[in-house]
Every structure is written in structure tokens, then in C-alpha cells.
From TrEMBL:
UniProt xrefs under InterPro entries: Ald_DH/histidinol_DH (IPR016161), Ald_DH_C (IPR016163), Ald_DH_CS_GLU (IPR029510), Ald_DH_N (IPR016162), Aldehyde_DH_dom (IPR015590), ALDH7A1-like (IPR044638)
Family: Belongs to the aldehyde dehydrogenase family.
A family per Pfam: Aldedh
Main enzyme class: oxidoreductase
The protein's Enzyme Commission number: 1.2.1.3
CDD domains the UniProt entry points to: ALDH_F7_AASADH
Protein name: aldehyde dehydrogenase (NAD(+))
Enzyme active site: E260
């Protein structure tokens, strides 16, 4: 395919890079099959222990030079990366769609997120502000400043194979860090493509080798990053199970982690909601990316007075969904990532039925022409209660649960009544309800929206969640501070040495 050639993707690819240098990893070969049609797109050779050590040594040397570049100059490099992404937007968006399975519109949208975070990071490079404080001692000055951490490890998931890496990397770079990226083994070629694009930019600007490192592999590579004391910060996106293991390993060495883990997101449909607008937010939130977003809408909490009407609208909308090749813009829903995901989808349906759930739109696996990969499934809807074990668990698939409520306080309690806390929303034109949902007694999620759905986030806001979602924040606002270390400085410009708190120490 032409877009593979444009991105420099070959049948077999080297799996370790420090920028312009590429190494054939000594680990196992990883084959990337497209969930769209089952085709083998390409392969990469994952890293072994010796490859990892060579890469880390190069990254450490690069940091010594990169941290001394002025932050605005680092921002200029990121700006050029954004310009390169504009050039490669179409082929990279197609690769994201083909390797991961999301619609082409979403694939292009993901690359646009990369461009947007580069623009944000460019401005940030001139705004890494500290504070000044008044000292209690005469002729003293106090202030805070921020310094880069060093090597930042990034572990990304298959569902956003390029955007989440860029959220971390663009900020980490302007803050003066170097980055080591382990992309998902389910989407390794997206990592190859991004590294080749940034390598072009770095080569033109004499950026030191090792500022951007790529390392392919399975969980063993992730464990190397988690346990390496040379990596002060590891940012990881994935399941709650993975995040708990990583957090324990990083904390054991007193390192830092940014965790973006599971979501079990709900939209409250109030009796005061605009139901037509709510339908769009609920349907896209539930079936977009085939339900494989961390912000996917998994629960609809619907007021009893509009429950039947809205359920009918939703069932009718699901009957109009077009499922097929995500590169075809006529289709609304593409495939799940692989057959293991299909098995989990089917198991969740069986669990839901066994626990008392009632399906108003049945699920199942699609077969026949156009579905030869075996990864296409039907989005489905079940009526449940919030306490069912299957509802409490995040299933990365297009299964939507309907739950009925009587009062807004009950709806908020249901919304909060799961272990995860990423994204939430309420559909209402009632100002009091909206404000109650956003208050201290409202949603306990990191993201709380009014009259928009749970999926999708703008670059300008900090992204992340609470509880089993991990508590991390990436992208906008002051998320940059996670990639730096704070230092308090006191300067004495007097001729004496007064001690704090008026302590006397005379010799």
C-alpha cells in the first residue's frame, strides 16, 4: 500500500532506534496483522537486554546535551515536528486506521491531536514559569525553578497508538527530557513511522542522538523500563491490572509514574435533556473506535420518565450503524483489535446474561465477505443494574449498559459507583442539575462534561482520571510539571548569615 511506502514501512523492520540509528533487536519477531482484513502488514524485531542497554546509554548521553538547549529552542524543534506531521497526516492517519482498526476519520483525528500538542508545547516552551517568594530574612530572595528529570519512559496502548505518545513526548522534550518509547506490540508499525518522521526533523537540526528512542517488545520490555533507576518517570497507558504492577515496581525504587488506566464511563440522561443531542453523544461514545477508547461510554444512566423513549431512539440508531472497513468513510464501526478482544467481548455478553442482564440489541461476531479477519462484532445494548460484576468491570468492546434512575442524587451515586474514575457526562438543560453534577458532591471522575459525551478530549485541558484510572494527568493545563523537578532557591545578598525562624548560633 502506498501509505506504507510513504512512511518507510518495510516487510521487516528494525525494532530499536535512538533517532537516526536503527538496530535489529535480538528479541523475538513481532508480526503486525491488520484487524481490517487479516493481512500481515509487516514485522519488527523486538529488543533484547543488550539492545536495551545500548539504547539507554545513548539516551543518558543525549540528556546531558539536550537539557542545556534553551527551552524555546527545544520548542522550535517540536514546532518543526508538528509541521512534519502536517505533511505526513494522511499516510500516518491511514496507518493508524489500518493497523489499529479505527475509522479513517478517527485515524486522521489522532494525527491532528499530535499536531495540536506540538502547537501547545511550542507555546509552553516560553512559559515554564516558577514563583518568587518573600523571605523572612532581610536581604534574601527566594524563588522556585523547574528542571528536567532526565529519561522519561513512555508505554502506550494500541487504541491510541500515536497520539498518547505525542502528549507525553512533546511536553517532555520542551521540558528538557529525553524519551524512551515502548509502543504496544499490537501496533508496532505506528511507532516505526513516528520515529522515522521525528528522525528527519532531528537530523536537520543536529539534535543529539538519543533524544527520541524507540524500543519494541512485549511486557518484558515494559518491566525493564519500570525497574530501571535511570528512568525517574514512567508514563503508562493500559489496563488497571498492568498499571498496578507498574506502579508497584516504580514506587519500589521511589520513581514517579503517570498512569492512564481503565475507564467505566457513564452519561446521565436527565428528564431535562435534549434527547436528540443526547443520542449523538451516547451513540458515538459507545461505538466509536468499536468501544476501544478509555473514554468510551459504557453506561447510560437514564431518568425513568424518558427511559423508554430514549431506549427506542437508541435501538433505532443502532439498527442504522454500518460496520465494515474503517478506511471506507461510509462505515461507522470498524473491527476490534484482534481475536483475543473478540473472545473477551463474547465472554462479557455471556456473563451479562448469566448475571441477569437483558439485551435489547443483541451482539455477535460478523462473518462473510468483508469480515474475513474475524474481528468485526455487533455493537449491543443491555438493560442492567449497576451492581452486576460485569458492569463494574471495563470491557474494551462496544457493549452499552442501560440503567434507570429516579432522582439526580441517585444518578450521581450510580455514576460514581464503579472502581474507575476517568470520564463522565450529564445531558441536561437544567442549570441546577448541571452545577450539582460538577460540584464537590458530584462526579468523582477526572473529566466531567455537560451536554457533550464522555469520549474525546481537547489538548488544552489536563487529561486523566481518579481511582483505578490511576490519577495521572497528561497533555494540557499544568500537566508539564509532572515531567520536571521543582527546586526552591534562596539567595543571600547581605553581609551576614541570619538563620531562619530567628535561631541564634554564635561562635
Amino acid at each position: 500500500m502506498e501509505f506504507l511506502q510513504q512512511l518507510g514501512i518495510e516487510a521487516e523492520n528494525k525494532g530499536v532506534s535512538t533517532g537516526s540509528s536503527w538496530f535489529t533487536g535480538t528479541g523475538v519477531k513481532i508480526d503486525s496483522y491488520s484487524p481490517v482484513d487479516g493481512t500481515l502488514i509487516g514485522s519488527v524485531f523486538s529488543a533484547g537486554a543488550t539492545d536495551y542497554e545500548a539504547m539507554m546509554a545513548q539516551a543518558g548521553e543525549a540528556f546531558k546535551e539536550w537539557r542545556m538547549w534553551p527551552a524555546p529552542k527545544r520548542g522550535e524543534i517540536v514546532r518543526q515536528f508538528g509541521e512534519a506531521l502536517r505533511v505526513y497526516k494522511e499516510p500516518l492517519g491511514k496507518l493508524v486506521s489500518y493497523e489499529m482498526g479505527k475509522s479513517l476519520q478517527e485515524g486522521l483525528g489522532e494525527v491532528q491531536e499530535m499536531i495540536d500538542i506540538c502547537d501547545f508545547a511550542l507555546g509552553l516552551s516560553r512559559q515554564l514559569y516558577g514563583l518568587t517568594m518573600h523571605s523572612e530574612r532581610p536581604l534574601h530572595r527566594m524563588y522556585e525553578q523547574w528542571h528536567p528529570l532526565g529519561i522519561v519512559g513512555i508505554i502506550s496502548a494500541f487504541n491510541f497508538p500515536v497520539a498518547v505518545w505525542s502528549w507525553n513526548t512533546a511536553l517532555a522534550w520542551v521540558c528538557g527530557n529525553v524519551c524512551v518509547w515502548k509502543p504496544s506490540e499490537k501496533t508496532p508499525l505506528c511507532g516505526i513511522a513516528c520515529q522515522k518522521i521525528i528522525a528527519e526533523v532531528f537530523a536537520k537540526n543536529n539534535v543529539p542522538e538519543g533524544v527520541s528512542c524507540l524500543i519494541q517488545g512485549d511486557r518484558t520490555v515494559g518491566e525493564l523500563l519500570s525497574n530501571d533507576t535511570r528512568i525517574p518517570l514512567v508514563s503508562a497507558t493500559g489496563s488497571t491490572r498492568m498499571g498496578k504492577a507498574l506502579a508497584a515496581a516504580v514506587a519500589a525504587r521511589l520513581g514517579r509514574s503517570i498512569l492512564e488506566l481503565g475507564g467505566n464511563n457513564a452519561i446521565i440522561i436527565s428528564q431535562h435533556a435534549d434527547l436528540d443531542m443526547s443520542l449523538i453523544g451516547a451513540a458515538f461514545g459507545a461505538v466509536g473506535t468499536a468501544g476501544q477508547r478509555c473514554t468510551t461510554t459504557r453506561r447510560l444512566i437514564i431518568h425513568e420518565s424518558v427511559y423508554d423513549v430514549f431506549k427506542a431512539k437508541l435501538v433505532n440508531a443502532y439498527q442504522q450503524l454500518s460496520i465494515g472497513d474503517p478506511l471506507d468513510s461510509k462505515n461507522h464501526v470498524g473491527p476490534l483489535i484482534d481475536k483475543d478482544a473478540v473472545k473477551m467481548y463474547l465472554q462479557s455478553i455471556e456473563d451479562c446474561k448469566a448475571q441477569g442482564g437483558h439485551f435489547v440489541v443483541e451482539g455477535g461476531v460478523l462473518e462473510g465477505e468483508g469480515y474475513q479477519s474475524g474481528c468485526y462484532v455487533k455493537p449491543c445494548i443491555a438493560e442492567v443494574t449497576n451492581d452486576l460484576p460485569v458492569v463494574q468491570h471495563e470491557t474494551f468492546a462496544p457493549i452499552l449498559y442501560l440503567i434507570k434512575y429516579k432522582a439526580i442524587e441517585e444518578a450521581i451515586e450510580l455514576q460514581n459507583g464503579v472502581p474507575q474514575g476517568l470520564s463522565s457526562a450529564i445531558m441536561t438543560v437544567n442549570m441546577r442539575e448541571a452545577e450539582q453534577f460538577l460540584s464537590q458532591a458530584g462526579s468523582d471522575c477526572g473529566i466531567a462534561n455537560v451536554n457533550i459525551g464522555t469520549s474525546g478530549a481537547e489538548i488544552g485541558g489536563a487529561f486523566g482520571g481518579e481511582k483505578e484510572t490511576g490519577g495521572g494527568r497528561e497533555s494540557g493545563s499544568d500537566a508539564w510539571k509532572a515531567y520536571m523537578r521543582r527546586q526552591t532557591n534562596t539567595i543571600n545578598y547581605s553581609t551576614k548569615l541570619p538563620l531562619a525562624q530567628g535561631i541564634q548560633f554564635n561562635l
